[in-house]
């Protein structure tokens, strides 16, 4: 009877689609965070198309000009429309960070599941390799990579993914090891289910919320890492620009309170705050469950 109850109890949670269908945000902060994320994701797709000017169009002789009806966020140090520059930089900031986050979390979760399922020497080898990577500070690793291979979008994605993969691995492995000791996994093993079945049907669905929360955190970390690299001139290179590059280019206007330096900084802050609000909402709901 107890085995039957355990099996029934886990049937509803072992379906990723049913988990996702029950995922919703109830708190006001979560709704605000979700709205900010959706807004910037939409801008990453249509931003360059709706920008009033080209990213590199010189539209005014008034450098560091104020906000106006013609230039909603003022002009930059060369007289370019900063609103258009921010919109055109959105795909680079969000697209590169999102690609790197997907790569980091996918590699981290897969290696964590393999380590947890294999145990023994396989677990030890993978864990030691990940420990070696995580011992290197992310910014130092990024500087070494850029100094060795130059700066390009593919390299930035690979660099950020490698830098933040070990953290995702640790979380995934810890979750998988914990789930694999639970009764319903032992029941599945007694039924003779394959390891692939156990991982995809029993273990992975029950890691969904923590992994999703970790994905959001990794995304924020990578956005800030890439923005800091661009601020140092080692990120996205001209004529393209992301938000970190816009802050660096216009930093001389900070003393005068030019919107050209404030606008991209606000964009970075709003994106990271939005993601944090949403993942906090998810974390609070997980705690209640």
From TrEMBL:
Transmembrane segment boundaries: 28-51, 140-165, 211-236, 256-279
Listed Gene3D superfamilies: MetI-like
Membrane topology: Multi-pass membrane protein
PROSITE patterns assigned to the protein according to its UniProt record, in alphabetical order: ABC_TM1
Localisation per UniProt entry: Cell membrane
CDD domains on file: TM_PBP2
One GO CC annotation: plasma membrane
Superkingdom of this protein's organism: Bacteria
Tagged with keyword Protease: no
Transport found in the keyword field: yes
GO biological process terms on file: transmembrane transport
A Pfam family that the UniProt record links to this protein: BPD_transp_1
Keywords, ordered alphabetically: Cell membrane, Membrane, Transmembrane, Transmembrane helix, Transport
Domain ABC transmembrane type-1: 90-279
Family affiliation: Belongs to the binding-protein-dependent transport system permease family.
PANTHER family: OLIGOPEPTIDE TRANSPORT SYSTEM PERMEASE PROTEIN APPC, PEPTIDE ABC TRANSPORTER PERMEASE PROTEIN
Name recorded for this polypeptide: Peptide/nickel transport system permease protein
Organism: Marinomonas rhizomae
